[in-house]
Amino acid sequence: MVEVALVARARLAELSAVQEAGIPELPMAELAWQYQLGPEHIEFVWSAVACAVDARIVPHLEALGGAHARRGLSPAVYAMLAELDDGSAAGLARWLASPNGLISDGLLVPAELASPAARGYLPASSLVNFLAAEDESIEPLRLVSAPAGLLFDPRQTETIAMIAATLCGNRDPVVVLEGPLGSGRVTAVAHACGAELVVLDVARLALDQLGEALVALRRERALRSTIPVLANVDHMLGEDRREQRRLIGEFIDRIAGPLVVTTTLTGTDLGATRSLVRWRWDVASDEVRAGLWRRAIESSGSTVDGELATLAQRYRVGPAAIQRAIASLQLVLPSGTPLDEATLATGLRHNIAEQLGGLADRVEVTQTWDDLVIAEDTGDLITALIGRIRHAHQVLDSWGYRSKIARGAGVAALFSGPPGTGKTMVAGLIARALDLELYQVDLSKVVSKWIGETEKNLARVFDAAEEGHALLLFDEADALFGQRSTEMSGATDRYANLEVNYLLQRVESFGGITILTTNLESAIDTALKRRLAAHIVFAAPEEDERARLWDRQVVTGTAPIARDVDYEALARTFPNMSGANIRNAAIAAAFLAAGDGAPRITQDYLSRAARAEYRSMGHMISEMTTSRSDRRRSV
């Protein structure tokens, strides 16, 4: 046994000598300073590392400590190797068993054994690489430095100065930076500190990964002596995530030194008792965004084709989103292709779906304006709405009317009217006319029974749509924007009111385009109506409009239509049909003709399909009425 101990001790001494000779500035000295390690603690850490990296020591350890030695170096085995007296061995075991930064930060990993003296300790791979001065992947963490040539507007410059003063002028400050995704929050902190940051993006984690990731963040903060950043923390918080809230709150309270936390929601409860300082971080001004676009394009090796002012005004994005858009374009365009505003907008839209996270679905618009049949005054209102969106930059910026707007410069419109009158169709046509993507919000995924989750989901939708300048469609909007209750009988009414309040604030501050449709105009909260840029009422079609709808829906250019089809008679015979009902009947008639092997879609097939659709609507029409109508047509 003594010979085994001597061999192992000699090998440990050899490794220690090689380490000390090979590295002029020992990382161990920095580690000792960070964790206040004494000489006896340093020797144990060195020995644990040597036992983990040198396979030739393992057999000797097993001879001394049995099979448990494979689980790491225990105080009992180390006491034999280092020839410790009873007091020193007991002191080492107590030090390892007491609250210990090396263990809580995941640098030394204890085995699951009851006896402190027999518990083995393995060094984390990051500790081994740190002592060897070797780099390794630190996933899910990442290192962030402020890139050269960043541009900031005056508001952002002022916020950066406050962040720098807070982090440098206090011993243990916690700075919470609130702002949209991709707006440059983390790079702003790196710029304020003038140093590299170690960042954990909580939005990229599964729920069960949070605990280990927080340990990794503590570990890397200690090893790198840098400021840690807990990014997008609100994505992990919620009424149904109490364990995650506890872990985050404990992390904030217990980590030593400065800490930065970023959130997308304002006033997020972090579950911590430590004092916080909150700053708001907004997307840069239009002029600065144009400069960011130009610099990013030039640094990528491409050239700018035309001006970027309209692009910067339409897309309120930060440096990260700009870089992603250009990187996406480089994957599909030949190297050196000049980039214009339309191409860059396509690059932004490539990345919007990932940020929406399935909360809204992209709608493929196949109709054209020729398919639309509406009253003339309704068409004028739609044209005016499109003009307001198209000329927003000229009116708000060139003519100076932005200063007259209290909050956001976006456009919100309400389309109300009976079902099937073209509300959703017009939303798609507007998106197509403005060269925008149309995303319909999936209410089944957005609305949550957990308090605060609905607001969080909506924040993601609005932020992603603002960054990608997509048109947001809230179909059946009365389900979300209903009238607030003045007599609250319980918590349900109170939280429902909070959700509507949040929606009203986001619609007002949203810089993009929101279209809401409803069949129940009276159910929409009156406060929302005051925030609307347009309220367009879609009435049920008149008889001449129904005739045109029958014509537009039946005729495709290739469908075999009989010459005797009378659209006026169909419009007269079925007076309560909307555009959607007429479309359903036209398609059903085509299937009836195809099923019979008929060479033409005749009046009879259209009448039969229309009667079936009418019955499904809850209306009845007699065969006698249809026959009289057909006789009048034939006369």
Describe the overall structure.
- This protein has 635 residues and is an alpha/beta fold.
- The protein has five domains: 130 residues, no CATH class; 140 residues, Rossmann fold, CATH 3.40.50; 65 residues, Helicase, Ruva Protein, domain 3 (Orthogonal Bundle), CATH 1.10.8; 169 residues, Rossmann fold; 92 residues, Helicase, Ruva Protein, domain 3 (Orthogonal Bundle).
- It contains 29 helices and 14 strands.
- The strands form three sheets. Strands 3-5-6-7-4-8 form a six-stranded mixed beta sheet, sandwiched between helices. Strands 9-11-12-13-10-14 form a six-stranded mixed beta sheet, with helices on both faces.
- Helix 23 links the parallel strand 12 and strand 13.
- Helix 1 crosses helix 4 and helix 25 packs across helix 26.
- The longest helix has 21 residues.
What's the gist of this structure?
This protein has 635 residues and is an alpha/beta fold. It contains 29 helices and 14 strands.
